[in-house]
Amino acid sequence: MAWLRVSTVVPAELAHQLADALEEQEAIAVTLADAEDEPVYEPTPGTTPLWQATRVEALFTEDADWERATQLATAMVGSSGIAWQVDPLADQVWERAWMDRFKPMRFGDRLWICPSAHPVPDEAEVVVKLDPGLAFGTGTHPTTHLCLEALDAMQTLPASVIDYGCGSGVLAVAALLLGTQEVQCVDIDPQALTATVSNAEVNGVESNIRVSQKPAELEPAELVLANILAGPLTELAPQLAELTKPGGTIVLSGILETQAEELLQTYSAWFDMQQVATMEDWARLIGTRHRQ
């Protein structure tokens, strides 16, 4: 069967509504993409930021009345003047084509992330089985990459860990496979918690993960991972300090390199901030909680 890809570019505030409307008009699939090469940085937990100019692409069967579908979808969102482009697509296994974009990735000396569509490399020592899914975090973003490298560099991980803003749970699963005994995961997005539990099950560590939407339910841990954004990290500094046991370690990411110095100063009230690493304009900070 051949397919039709119908696409348009709309402002960010209209993109989700239009995508939902297209799905109601029986689009096989709808995707949102960047229309103008605009970066979207690591999102705050529970948010789904979009590009100012967002490309909305809908997939229809070749015999579908796409003109009627797009007219109805446009009317449903109360907008006019939307220009649509239609492109025929040859048949292929779409799920396989999508998955083939993701390859095994190495983080440090031991740790790998391997999607199910690819064989595990012979040299992989510790393997996180992970496929792209509902929640943010596959290891491809520099902030996640930096956090995974930090975990790999810890020769002996502490028994207790908090993953604050867990997303897909990739950091939690990696920590457990590297030797941590228990990880508490928190995220206000229920899809993130669903993804975390699912990925934990795939990797056989579900019994060692606790998930919650309520930060107040967290108990202090020896290692706290917070891969969110500089703004929330600044606001959460007192709470994250309280959640880190004396002498424990905190790993902060989701920070632009230009924001690192301000975060270092903020967290130095509670931590001995010892390490800064950068990747593609992003920074990761590591500190040790003061004992008094």
Summarize the structure.
This protein is an alpha/beta fold and about 290 residues long. It has helices at about 10-25, 65-75, 95-100, 140-155, 170-175, 190-200, 230-235, 235-245, 260-265; strands at about 5-10, 30-35, 55-60, 85-90, 105, 110-115, 125-130, 160-165, 180-185, 210, 220-225, 245-255, 270-280, 280-290.
Describe the fold and architecture.
- It is built from 9 helices and 14 strands.
- With about 290 residues, the chain is α/β, with parallel strands linked by helices.
- It folds into 2 domains: about 90 residues, 2-Layer Sandwich (Alpha-Beta Plaits), CATH 3.30.70.120; about 150 residues, Vaccinia Virus protein VP39 (Rossmann fold), CATH 3.40.50.
- Strand 8, helix 5 and strand 9 form a beta-alpha-beta unit.
- Helix 1 packs across helix 2.
- The chain is elongated, with a radius of gyration of 21 Å.
- About 0% of the residues have low confidence.
